[in-house]
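Contributing new records

If you add data, match the layout below exactly. Sequence lines come first and carry their own label; structure lines follow with theirs. Keep one chain per record. Anything else will be rejected by the validation script.
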Amino acid sequence: MDIEFERPEVIEAYQEGRLREALDYLKDNSPYYRRMFRENGVDVSKVRTIADLAALPFTEKKDLQLYNWDFLCCDRAKVVDYVTTSGTLGEPVTFACTEKDLQRLAFNEKKSFMCAGLGPGNILQLMTTIDKRFMAGLAYFLGIRELGASIIRVGNGIPELQWDTIQRLKPDSIMCVPSFIPKLIQYAESHGIDYRSSSIRKIIGIGEGLRDQNFELNLLGRRIKEKWDVELYSTYSSTEMGATFAECGYGCGGHVHPELIIVEIIGEDDLPVRDGEVGEIVVTTLGVEGMPLLRFRTGDMAAKRTEQCRCGRWSYRLTPLVGRKNNMIKFKGTTLYPPMVIDVLDNCPEISNYQLILDLDELGNDNVTVNIGLPRPDPEKDAALVADLKNSFRAKIRVAPNINVVGAEQLAKDIYVDKNRKPIKVVDRRPKC
């Protein structure tokens, strides 16, 4: 039986057995963790339970950046694929994957696609890159093969090519960044394509959320659903964890795959919070051969839900992300995360694009400026739009950021930078501690 459907105590006992194996592997093979264990007086034989993890030091992004190759646990000759992170918090980090690691990725994505109801006979159109040292695209490809379904590797962007492929090959599912879907719909509407009658029945989102903390569709999700009545699924993953938290058909959070990862949610005191409370996601990878991680701080904020899902799984779930810990903002006495600001902007159809700038004011307090891109700036109309937008901010998040109007084409050059895989929607210029 799939471990995800077992009772919580069975899942926990299973994970603790895998944890002890992972710790022994790190002690025997990892230059970084051997040094960390020695310097902190850690005896891994005494770490028997998940609760015992709280006594161990964290691994942080800066550790991976400073000591990247000290995390490698095998001979370089065993490495079959090199990938890099997207560099969200700074310099990208290289991860080396062995054949066993790629098989693990295939298993991970197979289970994730199964959560979304895919199986043999389904056809998935992949609208994300599989090259440029990008782990996710490769993982999706391997997972679909392992599942026994079919995949069409179109790559990101180019609505014309996407629709030509849909009309020719009749895929039933799409996998892409959710904010690309409105562009796909807009292209279809302007070119007379009856997208509602197309073969597409499911959209699996990556990199962006489609739901809020109550598991209701957020503004972007509602906008898509109102236009296109398809099934929407969200996923959460990262290169570092090499695992995916995937929604099932009930859309009540991303299910953990217990074979692959252990999750802790920690508070401001660096101690575990109660289930259901928001905190930082900390992960320990299981079964990774090349570069496994112990208590890695993701910087992402979410909560853990442990009640049984209506799909029958007992594996705990993560809520949609609240934001990134390092991007938390204290603005005019209110605590914010960029997604809260973005949610308001996504509900303003007059805006072509936008970018958030986070910096400090003359008193050293957090300052938020939103640059909004308009196709044809008009001073009189723009003033009214800015006033309405500020009212929307006050109604939704209680405070209104500074708003600048910029030409959409000019702003696009700052958002879509060639060397970056993802659009740069947030620029944080605040000094890093």
